[in-house]
From TrEMBL:
Record keyword Transmembrane helix present: yes
Region (Disordered): 247-267
Transmembrane spans: 80-103, 115-137, 172-193
Keywords: Membrane, Transmembrane, Transmembrane helix
Entry superkingdom: Eukaryota
Protein name per Swiss-Prot or TrEMBL: Uncharacterized protein
Length: 267
């Protein structure tokens, strides 16, 4: 069933969001996987930006880093999450591209693709929520004295973990947008399928349909009977239109009558 204009716009916006996020998060997760396995040699940072990059690498990417024991996300755990993000981001990108093509060309699979897209978006949002909660737990331990253990400054720890946590939550606002569009896509597609299968037909009629009778030609004149004495076949017969005058006998008295206005009756 072809979607209405408003529903097509909603599906296209959702597909564009999936294309953008799928490509962006697949690229970032692939870069994190490469850095974790490559282990490049880094020089001592001299600027604020370089120092921040160095702290992020030490906390989340360096394989043999002396990370604080109280951290929940260690480099190995972080890499596992990156593989999960890479796979679901590639799948989300492919589904979003197929959804956009299906909506643009009016394919029959567009409602099914909307349900699949919404389901995958909810899965991505659930992974984001779990990863963000774990990073939030690590963020809460940055206020402890980490200098003696790893040489990490609490300030840089807060900043590095906060940046990664914000990326995991997709800026928080984008996460809410994803959840909203996921539920809308599933809801709209389910309603379209419901209407297409006829379950919603009882609510679609504004009035009860009425039968249309065939029109007959009543404008013509009725047949005229010329001979009123025509006798039909037995046992039916038309009554004669000729009326006979009553006959009175001499013995019978005449009925009372009056000839003019105001006269008395005569017998």
């Amino acid at each position: 069933m072809r979607l209405h204009r408003e529903r097509r716009i909603l599906a296209k916006v959702a597909a564009v969001l999936g294309l953008f996020q799928g490509l962006a998060w697949a690229s970032m997760s692939l870069a994190a996987i490469i850095l974790h396995n490559w282990s490049p040699s880094l020089e001592q940072p001299t600027t604020y930006g370089k120092m921040l990059e160095y702290q992020i690498y030490l906390i989340f990417l360096k394989g043999n880093s002396d990370q604080p024991a109280q951290f929940a996300i260690r480099p190995t755990d972080f890499t596992i999450f990156m593989w999960i993000y890479f796979l679901i981001s590639i799948l989300w990108f492919a589904l979003s591209a197929d959804l956009f093509v299906a909506i643009h060309r009016g394919k029959r699979r567009q409602t099914n693709m909307m349900i699949i897209w919404g389901t995958l978006a909810l899965i991505v949002s659930l992974v984001d929520l779990i990863f963000t909660c774990l990073l939030g737990r690590d963020y809460s331990v940055c206020d402890e004295d980490l200098t003696d253990e790893t040489g990490l400054s609490p300030y840089y720890c807060f900043t590095a973990v906060g940046i990664v946590m914000t990326l995991a939550a997709r800026g928080f606002a984008l996460w809410l947008v994803n959840v909203t569009f996921a539920f809308l896509a599933i809801y709209v597609a389910a309603n379209v399928i419901k209407e297409d299968t006829g379950f919603g037909s009882l609510h679609s009629f504004r009035s009860i349909p009425r039968a249309t009778l065939a029109k007959s030609d009543t404008t013509g004149s009725l047949p005229r009977i010329e001979n009123t004495d025509y006798v039909f076949s037995q046992p039916f017969r038309l009554p004669s239109l000729k009326m006979s005058q009553p006959k009175y006998s001499a013995e019978e008295p005449e009925l009372p009558s009056f000839s003019t206005r105001g006269e008395k009756f005569t017998y």
